[in-house]
Amino acid sequence: xxxxxxxxFSTVGRQRLQVTGCAGSHRRRNSLLRSQGFTLLELLAVVIxxxxxxxxxxxIAVYVNRKVAITQTQADIKTLELAIExxxxxxxxxxxxxxxxxxxxxxxxxxxxxxxxxINSAMLYNQLSNSSKVYIQIKASQLASNKVVxxxxxxxxxxIVDHWNTPxxxxxxxxxxxxxxxMVPTAGTGxxxxxxxxxxxxxxxxxxxxxxxxTNWKQQ
Length: 220
Hints:
By secondary structure, the chain is an alpha+beta fold. The chain has helices at 5-36, 40-91, 113-129, and strands at residues 100-102, 143-150, 153-160, 169-171, 183-185, 198-201, 214-215. The chain has a domain at 65-215.
């Protein structure tokens, strides 16, 4: 093929047009991507916003779960109160409990407050659900096996538990029921509902006597 100056300039011109066209196409494509996508700053802003939303949501979820647990425990206590009242109608007295700490044998091992709560909860369960007449059907989710260790002796009791799987506390000291032959009164104990009975949960902090206790009496 014979190359002339006209052909040469025509070929170079076409190549320049092709290069210019490619460059323009790349610019249009990049502009389109920028218009359709996110910049690094925009992505960073989205991540920060999500972190803030999660940080706000977690405390709300914790608060809601706490309120649901307290409401459920209050309902359980109300249901138990009705069963206890039915028990009294049939038996002339409320289910019994003990507010005593006990020494086992000749040792100096004393029943703790938690152990006492376990024993009283077990006593209430046995009198309401394991007696000749069943006054309430306790759901499996409301029962737990708890142990009381005294010296070398370990006893297991089925107890009625609250939403936090802690034994519900029950106190009714009329008439007092001995749980062992050797007993000493627990210092500073008392019954709030002196005419009936006390029924309460330690609440979400698992500590007795604090503001979040769920009780069958009005707290100060």
